[in-house]
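Quick entry between incubations.
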Amino acid sequence: MTQTAEAAEAEAAEPEQPPVDERVKERSKFHQALIRPELGGIAGTILVFFFFFLTARDSGMFSPSGVLNWSIVSAQFIIIAVGACLLMIAGEFDLSVGSMIGFAGMSIALLSVSLGWPVWLAIIVTFILCMGVGALNGWLVIKTGLPSFIVTLAFLFILRGLTIFAAITTTNKTIVGGIRDVAEGDWLAPIFGGKIFTGFFQWMGDAGWIETFERGTRKGQPVVEGIPMLIVWALVLVIFGHWLLTKTKFGNWIFASGGDARSADYVGVPVNRVKILMFMFTAFCACVFATAQVMEFGSAGADRGLLKEFEAIISVVIGGALLTGGYGSVIGAALGAIIFGVVQQGLFFAGVESSLFRVFLGVILLLAVILNTYIRRMITGEK
Amino acid sequence: MAEPIIDMRNIEKHFGSVIALAGVSVDVIPGECHCLLGDNGAGKSTFIKTMSGVHKPSAGEIFFEGKPMNFDSPRDSIDAGIATVYQDLAMIPLMSVARNFFMGNEPTRKIAGISFFDHQKANDVTMAEMKKMGINLRSPDQAVGTLSGGERQTVAIARAVHFGAKVLILDEPTSALGVRQTANVLATVDKVRSQGIGVVLITHNVRHAMAVGDRFTVLDRGKTLGTANRGEITPEELQDLMAGGQKLATLEGSLGGTV
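Done. Structure below.
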């Protein structure tokens, strides 16, 4: 009796262990934690910061104003990279992002300055317009079955051409200024062009924690006035994108649509809706970028955003996403964007000839992609 | 004989000037494995695609549980309880087993009014369902790409069963598999059948059909050549029927009876 009880107890204590497959190698927890899509991005970020910490430490790169400088540039890349990342995971590209930035900026400028609309209305209408173009991109890709590469390449030219045409015919210039004056007192403009925590930074400046201007009109003000909304937008978009992709039902649909659209369709995933929504989200991100830029510069230029689509795609690829879709990470894309921003500004701080930026970038791109390919093969069992 | 779950009568399907199906009738009763046999181009795939809502039939009637049905999309037939496991389209290799398992049917959990993908539930259910089918996963986060072909088919079958399929259509589940994996998949079919699900097994391998089939329907050039019950037909007769008559007998002779 006691024996059987003991046996039962032993059985209860040891819940039925699945038989271990002798062909599966055990991987340590550390090894498992290491293999993730963002690993290339994490390694690259550490490497880049290490490099600039050694070479540009005394140049002011890591002073408050230096940090703000490369943070703003990185935040710009992050904003467009989040959109490009989700779209790429859903299996599509958008090459019209750069032209969209020029188009959106010009649209805000023309509507508010030339037509005299209130700035908030100009911004809202521009967002609707851009997301409409994004939806059109997606709809064309789905209806024609053409690669998004071709469809959005067409829009790269169409939007850029329209932007220049609209600017020249209405104002006879390719740069339209005066937005800062009309945006004065607007309720929506500060959400893109404003700064937060200004009081806190003033307090830190007064307390002598951060440098203040010593002369001129801004005497006594801290060199860093506050956190620009651009950085807030970047953070919000990364958190939203990461949440959407990994924590929601819709995120699973994004992976499925990019991984194999037909399989996904057969089990009832609304692939077309997912793809069109992702095109619209990419357009939304481009529009955020453009609006923040217009509010910062106080002007819109018809050539703004040139080559931004490639910078977004490069950030996403450095971040571990697969060009053919179905695999990637928003956090990785954000790290890719940070690498991009830090390298671009860091070389300037380090006093390196600026033409070397492209060399440096090319090397990082290649190293990150090789590492990412290796990691991905380990995860997906190709190797 | 039990009431059929699905009864397809005189289904025709035309693609332009091509007549892919010229009047095919098949019914499936609960708990049986109905094998659909036929050579390449016989119309097997077109037929199951009309059953699963991918194609709309040009003519003919579909009765599901006694009621006439019209499927406009795969979603409709899935909602009705018809699950299809396609040979190469079953799974997405880059995604984890759990994500694949719940693809299109993601469990959600509300936190502060926002709905989240319930990873914990997805992982637990996947592990439990796979265990029932006799596959021990290392972890539910494992990418499907790391599984073997037979295991992938099994995940797809387990998924269909879990989501309440009444009819399970398997499109050539064994054609790309090795001997042992084939045996595993056929054993899975047997398990599914014993739960009262009607299984439609498409194959052009007579031996695989004979191993699990209760009824056999042979298609040739878009037509039904007839339906036979288990025990009423020999593998040789089935083989000849599939190949369209006597021709195979001579061919088989020259190959020394190995086909």
